[in-house]
What does this fold into?
Amino acid sequence: MIRLYNTAIRAKQDFVPVNPDRVTMYVCGPTVYGRAHIGNFRPAVVFDVLQRLLRHRFGADKVIYARNITDIDDKIMDKARAEGVAIEVITERYEALYLEDAATLGVERPDLHPHATTSIPAMIGMIELLVAKGHAYAAEGHVLFDVASHADYGQLSRRPLDEMIAGARVEVAPYKKNPADFVLWKPSSKDQAGWPSPWGRGRPGWHIECSAMIAESLGTTIDIHGGGIDLTFPHHENECAQSACAHDGAPLANVWMHNGFLNFGGDGKMSKSLGNVLSVGDLTEAGWSGDELRLALLSAHYRQPLTWDTALLGQVRARLDKWLRKLGDVPKGVRPLPPVSVVEALADDLNTPAALAAIAGVESDRDALLGALAFLGLPSLGPERSRSAAEMRGLADDEETAAVDALVAARTAARLAKNWAESDRIRDALLARGIVLEDGPAGTTWRAA
Ligand SMILES: [Zn+2]
It folds into this structure.
């Protein structure tokens, strides 16, 4: 059983997807107007580990993971104006850099990456629904969400309304009924990017983008919604409100997960002059590998803050050097299954420090070590860009992989019951199918011979 900490209830709970054949996860992706820094990649890496764990548990093709690209935003428009180019020039440049940096860190491409600008009709449709249901109102070319119309507003972030209003006062505008009301649609001038709408030419607010992209790409209620802790309020609170109000109270997500910040500073070497935090490109140019950066991002529990400095990277390098030396030359292709102890640690709310400790415990077993590190997604050990469990293990398809998994589990049960005849029978049956089993201290792994 996978257990996850759910921000909505401030507790860990068993993870039970609505439909185990279609597990849905959405993570708020980058706004592409500049190169992301290493801290921006913590959610990308953390939720990449989670999607691997979910595929391991539910099946490689049973998980649909979407991470959006916010490609319309005032910061993008400002950057485009400063450079005298169209917004697409900016968004395509920084999306490409984001994907390149993510690949360096071993982050697999999500199944879906909806772009805000290609989901505008879905956003307009949802805003129309909110207006029709009395949860939003148009004023001076804007459409605003009426916070007072939704009694549950503030529940996710557990903020008292007066605090939210105080926080929103910076955005006081004469057309708002309540200072906490937030923008769903805003007008664009002739020289600004915009789309026709029932309220005039304009563009969506950031929060409605995610609500609409989730409904369009994954459905009304998803299993897991993730993002950085800084998004809890207002972004996720507003996503929650919009989606529940548009969908007659159906919750947007059953589990809300938030990762903590990276703390910079320490030795001061992780920032450039002017205080800009280093990008993945800066760090690899400085000699750190994608493996080291990924492992460093996973060295603390995802909900805890992580102090990012050269001391951390140095420790990770020493640990990884030792492991990679034990592995020696690793050919591309088939990877052993991860040891049970590592999977169990990750199943406990993605406890990566415990998983790394479990790896240290099995490091004398080369296959277990390789299986564990590949499962954690280290770029140099990961399979070729493919996430099919069948391909990972050299089989024809995922169905066959699931059948072999079931037989291996049956054999483990037989061994635990000391039914050696049955255990040997299953081993021989698998061998006849070209599957080789290996029993190690961390459990049984298998591969196609
Ligand atoms: Zn979002």
